[in-house]
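One record is set out below.
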Amino acid sequence: MNLDKLFFPDSILVLGVSDGQANLGKEVIKNLNRFGYGGRVYGLGRRDIEVEGRRVYQDIEQVPEVPDVAILLVPAAATVEALETVAAKGSGM
């Protein structure tokens, strides 16, 4: 199995992003920006907003591509639904 896309993704989807002060998804996007990640970053949350200059979508179907990696930052009870959402988009990771 080739793991290049896992370790060197061209695109990352962060699920569970909000503009709340202590939101972990927002912090992940902030750190990707701060450390110079050069790929495409998409957020997915409950509201269409912008975080750190990156669009946060409300619906995964609006995300313009299948992400190489998805980071799930949702409560445990929402994990299965989040995985199903990512799988429906076509991402395997």
Q: What stands out?
A: Residues 4-89 form a domain with the Rossmann fold fold (CATH 3.40.50.720).
